[in-house]
UniProtKB/TrEMBL annotation, chain A:
Role, per record: Plays a central role in 2-thiolation of mcm(5)S(2)U at tRNA wobble positions of tRNA(Lys), tRNA(Glu) and tRNA(Gln). May act by forming a heterodimer with CTU1/ATPBD3 that ligates sulfur from thiocarboxylated URM1 onto the uridine of tRNAs at wobble position.
Main location: cytoplasm
Name of the featured protein: Cytoplasmic tRNA 2-thiolation protein 2
Gene: CTU2
PANTHER family: CYTOPLASMIC TRNA 2-THIOLATION PROTEIN 2
InterPro entries membership: CTU2, Rossmann-like_a/b/a_fold
Biological process according to GO: protein urmylation; tRNA wobble position uridine thiolation
From TrEMBL, chain B:
Name recorded for this polypeptide: Ubiquitin-related modifier 1
Gene Ontology BP terms: protein urmylation; tRNA thio-modification; tRNA wobble uridine modification
GO cellular component: cytosol
Keywords assigned by UniProt, alphabetized: Cytoplasm, Isopeptide bond, tRNA processing, Ubl conjugation pathway
Length: 409, 97
């Protein structure tokens, strides 16, 4: 008789649903029986680990967007989600050939110490800690002070032509070829060069702080930071020859982002902001492979398998619930999740998956107006909705023309 | 009764940045449970902003509590009776992506 056919006590079933709502129920119940007689036995850890790794490979395999041998830049903030993503890539690249991940990774970390008023010593300490983590992976890595965003050329806010659309059969053919040749024709992972910590001019730090300080609300400041971060990552990917950028947003984060985006008037851009792939930049595709993991799963995995990560305060650390729309939405979703454990998965699955199809039809039209900052198509359809109109963009463009004018050669 | 406690994922920011605490709870006639432990932590270890850690009787939503590496929801949450050398970990899942 299968364990799932055994009549477990209702409170066990409820508890199982609460803590691992994305698992299949018979797996959970099997684990539960063990848990009640042994404190987290090895078999539980292993089946959890296998399932965790399997989900990562499955989401990449299902979407078939990363071709064998392609250079992929991993955006790691030092937080649990992105460090877990880094660990999955490491695990995935080290396994036997037919199930192995086939791309060539690099790691990018943005030092945002200036945004939170950290001293130079504090920033160097954090960077040194993360540098040790990156060096242990053996992948090439780039430490980018956020101040570098002030030197970006204006071309970063341009959509470059995307590579020609590959037919579906091309992916299978590419994988077949890779396996046949044992990957020998594809670029080898680079030897990580000895990177020195980049020096930052104090004037740049002050300029950046001035820019962030000029933004009146925490909501807008967080949005601006997001935009600057993305520009810097895309620029680095372009200059270092990467064609894909992997972001570590978990399911919980994306559910919060989805609701926040609606509140901020970005309803028309939801599919790009929260979907698996985001092609607004044309030549660089953003992918979110962690979108099937809840924050809780990630935290649990990191704890059980000692995944190193560094806690870095952000602009909304220790702020009250109502400090920004992002904080309020996060508080709302996490509180609801406590009593209704399928909140996050419902928000994420029912809405973001449906939105994907609708947006693709629209993005086919070329020459449509795009926002200067986020490069998404403007939703300027006449009607009651005032999502993301030219007016709102204009005010923040004034800040931007200041930065990019300074940077343009 | 002594127990190792640990705060992680950002939770340690509320405990002066100290991640590990080995605590010895004063002996009493009834066994210690998680509810009492939380009150004890609030009184003796929390250095600032108690509302970011404790909410009402329980922890703030978003904080994962592990007792001997198992989710406390499987152990009875607040009603779980602590045993000597039980390992309790508080991980904030709200921080970092």
């Amino acid at each position: 008789m299968l364990l799932c056919q055994v009549d477990f006590l209702p409170q066990w079933r409820r508890a199982a649903q609460k803590c691992v709502c994305t698992w299949r129920s018979c797996e959970v119940l099997a684990c539960l029986q063990w848990l009640c007689s042994h404190p987290v036995p090895v078999s539980f850890r292993l089946c959890f680990k296998d399932f965790f790794i399997h989900k990562f490979k499955a989401v990449l395999g299902k979407n078939r967007i990363i071709f064998p041998g392609e250079k992929v830049l991993l955006a790691v903030s030092g937080g649990p989600s992105s460090c877990s993503m880094l660990r999955q890539v490491q695990e995935g690249l080290s396994q036997k050939a037919n199930k192995k991940l086939r791309f060539v990774p690099g790691v990018a970390f943005i030092d945002e110490g200036a945004a939170i008023g950290q001293s130079v010593e504090e920033r160097q300490r954090t960077v040194a800690e993360l540098q040790a983590v990156f060096q242990a992976t053996g992948f090439p890595f780039y430490i980018l002070p956020l101040e570098q965003v002030l030197d970006l050329p204006a071309s970063v806010v341009a959509t470059n032509p995307s590579p020609s659309e590959q037919p579906a059969s091309a992916y299978k053919a590419a994988v077949h070829h890779f396996v046949e040749t044992d990957g020998s024709n594809f670029p080898r992972p680079q030897e990580p060069k000895k990177t020195l910590l980049p020096r930052v001019q104090e004037s740049h730090t002050l300029m950046l702080q001035q820019l962030l300080g000029s933004v009146k609300t925490l909501t807008a400041r967080e949005e601006l930071l997001n935009t600057l971060r993305q520009h810097l990552l895309v620029h680095t990917a372009r200059t270092e020859g990467y064609s894909k950028l992997m972001l570590g947003d978990s399911c919980t984060r994306l559910a919060v982002k989805l609701l926040t985006s609606i509140s901020l008037g970005r309803g028309a851009q939801l599919a790009q902001d929260t979907g698996f792939s985001d092609s607004r930049y044309g030549d660089i595709i953003l992918v979110r492979p962690m979108r099937d993991y809840s924050a809780k799963e990630v935290a649990y995995y990191n704890h059980l398998f000692t995944v190193p990560y560094v806690v870095i305060p952000s602009v909304d650390t220790k702020t009250v619930d109502k400090a920004s729309i992002q904080r309020l939405t996060e508080s709302f979703v996490t509180k609801l999740q406590t009593d209704f454990p399928s909140t996050v998965s419902t928000i994420y699955r029912l809405t973001s998956e449906k939105l994907q199809t609708a947006c693709r039809k629209r993005s086919g039209a070329d020459g449509c107006d795009r926002c200067l900052l986020c490069l998404c198509s403007l939703d300027t359809a006449v009607g009651e909705s005032l999502t993301h109109t030219g007016v709102t963009v204009h005010i923040t463009v004034l800040h931007f023309s200041f930065i990019y004018k300074q940077g343009c050669t | 009764m002594s127990s190792p406690l640990r705060g992680d994922g950002g939770a340690e920011l509320l405990f002066n940045g100290v991640k590990k605490h080995h605590v010895t709870l004063p002996s009493q006639s009834e066994p210690w449970d998680m509810k009492q432990l939380l009150v004890w932590i609030q009184r003796n270890l929390l250095k600032e902003r108690p509302e970011l850690f404790v909410q009402g009787d329980s922890v703030r939503p978003g904080i994962l509590v592990l007792i001997n590496d198992a989710d406390w929801e499987l152990m009875g949450e607040l009603d779980y009776q602590l045993q000597d050398q039980d390992n309790v970990v508080f991980i904030s899942t709200l921080h970092g992506g």
